[in-house]
Specification:
By secondary structure, the protein is α+β, with helices and mostly antiparallel strands. The protein contains three helices and six strands; from the N terminus they run βααββββαβ. Residues 1-114 form the YCII-related domain.
């Protein structure tokens, strides 16, 4: 079964990416991603650039409404995601709990929608 782990970090945690704390920040993420790869559970994933680089689109009456940045003003920001291939939710939760952001931010776990039936 596939699960998406959506990694949410506080702006302070994301700010560590480019400071003197960067080696510890990236080292923790490298070790975590390496552990998932070594266990053979990581299907795919990517980190994301900061929310300030985002563009949000909504449509109303067939017209585009485009906004710079994320639409919601939140305390946590989506920093990246991984698609896991694991037997069940409990296993996905175990991997999510090991994420470096789990203590300061959060990890959202969602089942991946199966492909539509052929036909």
């Amino acid at each position: 079964m596939q699960f998406a782990l959506l990694y949410n970090e506080t702006p302070e945690e994301q700010g560590r990416r480019d400071t003197a704390d960067a080696p510890a920040y990236w080292g923790a993420w490298s070790a975590y991603m390496g552990a998932m790869a070594a266990a053979g559970v990581m299907h795919s994933g990517q980190g994301l650039l900061p929310p300030a680089t985002a563009t949000t689109l909504r449509t109303a009456g067939g017209k585009w409404q485009v906004h710079d940045g994320p639409f919601a003003d939140t305390k946590e920001q989506l920093g990246g995601f991984v698609i896991l291939e694991v037997p069940d939710l409990d296993t996905a939760l175990e991997w999510a709990a090991r994420a470096p952001c789990a203590g300061a931010g959060s990890v959202e776990i969602r089942p991946v929608m199966p492909p539509p039936p052929a036909g």
